[in-house]
Amino acid sequence: MGSDPNLDATHDPGLRSWVESANEPGCDFPIQNLPFGIFKRKGAKESPRGGVAIGDQILDLAALDIKTGPTLNGIASLGRPAWKRLRSQLSKGLSKAKPNKRFSRYLVPIKQAQLFLPLAIGDYTDFYSGIHHATNIGKILRPDNPLLPNYKWVPIGYHGRSSSIVASGTQVVRPRGQVKPPEQEQPTYGPTRRLDYEAELGFVVGPGNRLGKPIALRDALNHVFTVSPWIVTFEALAPYRCPAFPRAAGDPRPLPYLWDDEDQRAGGLAIDVEMHLRTAKMQAPVRLSRGSFRDSYWTVAQLVAHHTSNGCNLRPGDLLGSGTLSGATPDSYGSLMELTQGGKQPLTLPSGETRAFLEDGDEVVQKGYGQGDGIRIGFGEAAGLIKS
Predict the structure, then answer these.
(1) 1 pLDDT more than 50
(2) Strand partners, 177
């Protein structure tokens, strides 16, 4: 597999599976991927359990005598050596070269499966690492000072409600709150008129750290189990590692706890994130934008290192969000706020409808993937339908 120490036999582009659907061009779940999820058969009286997507099938982890229960937190806590061994077992058993005949009895078609939130998420932190998004939003809200000076010194993160994280396909109820237009003397209570989406990646914590013991940047990726919505392991993403975002001349060099030469060389991820929209009048969704984690100003390792730098303890299953991933051009903007310039320039859709922000009945679909060597490592879809 060349000289890259992150690559092994499981990344071989020529590897093929006896599950033929995994070999089809453009398949999200080829044998080089092997993402984890929690599932049960639709309509069956059985408990949710762990499985691995391969082509259009899910391999029940019972094939390896692994009993996860209703979450993947136990696997997340095992650590990188255990994840690599499990990936190797799955790859060998699903490959044409050394098929495990027992596996065929444990396959369930994805179309016949109900998927669940794969982890019990204790805490959730959403970062603000997409520099183009931060600059674009700043220009709309603060034209004279779009990018605050601390942005290039420290990864900015916000604590969120983990209880609001739901599985793909869950309907999203329009938020309500107080609004005070300039012409009114008092605020009124009602549904938001400016509901938006954000194109992001999520990173799941594997082994945690003790309270008061920071994680060093060069060790940080040993604590990152996966990237979601399907739990695509960092091992599967090894071929898509790339240089970190190039800092502009004059940008400050991060403080030592946030700097590592190897992380700068290969701490980025060439992962594309697409946002699609389907209205109630549309047969098929239309793609509104395609961005990339290449445009994250901070690497995943830097996010983890900073999060724990004050001694904060991360636990298996905790979730870190990348923040909105926008590129430098409008076709890569990861939010309607950017695409419509704060609602001032509504989009015209193929149906003839216009959108400044999301309306009831709209469905938002996010897709993510790495692409190269004829292999697509996909994340599946994360979809949400807006209701009043």
Answers:
(1) no
(2) 190
What integer pLDDT is reported at residue 98 of this predicted model?
87
336 contacts 135 by C-beta, under 8 angstroms: no
Q: Over the range 315-353, which residues count as b (16 or more CB within 10 Å of their CB) and which as e?
A: bbbbbbbbbbbbbeeeebbbbbbbbbbebeeeeebeeee
Which residue type occupies 365? Answer: V
**Domain match, 135 and 69 both:** no
* 8 Å CB contact between 275 and 201: no
Q: Which residues pair with 202 in a beta bridge?
A: 228, 321
CB atoms within 10 A of CB 246: 10
Does the global pTM surpass 0.85? yes
Overall number of domains in the chain: 2
Place of tokens 């992001």: 200
Query: In this predicted model, what pLDDT tens digit does every residue of 115-137 receive, in sequence order?
Result: 999 999 999 999 999 999 999 99
For residue 132, report the phi and psi dihedrals to the nearest 5 degrees.
Answer: -70, -40
* DSSP string for 13-30: TT--BSSGGGGSTT-SS-
Nearest Cα to 133, choosing from 363, 329, 356?
A: 329
Quote the CA–CA distance of 54 and 299 in Å, as a whole number. Answer: 29
121: its two tokens: 């998420």
159 tagged catalytic? no
Give the integer Cα–Cα distance in Å for 46 and 67.
13
In whole angstroms, what is the distance from residue 54 CA to residue 66 CA?
17
In a domain? residue 35: yes
The pLDDT > 70 percentage for the chain reads 99
Instruction: Kindly state whether residue 383 falls inside one of the protein's structural domains.
Output: yes
* Alpha-carbon span 292 to 328, nearest angstrom: 10
CA distance 264 to 256: 13
Place of tokens 């923040």: 323
Q: Are residues 298 and 226 in the same domain?
A: yes
Q: Is residue 3 part of a domain?
A: no
Domain of residue 38: give its range: 9-116
Question: What are the structure tokens assigned to 37, written together?
Answer: 């999820």
Query: Which of 133, 223, 276, 307 does the annotation list as catalytic?
Result: 133
Residue 350 shares a structural domain with residue 235: yes
List CB contacts of 145: < 8 A, sequence separation 6 or more. 138
> Is 232 part of a structural domain of the chain?
yes
- What is the four-CA torsion angle of 45, 73, 92, 57, rounded to 10 degrees? 40
One domain for residues 156 and 101:
no
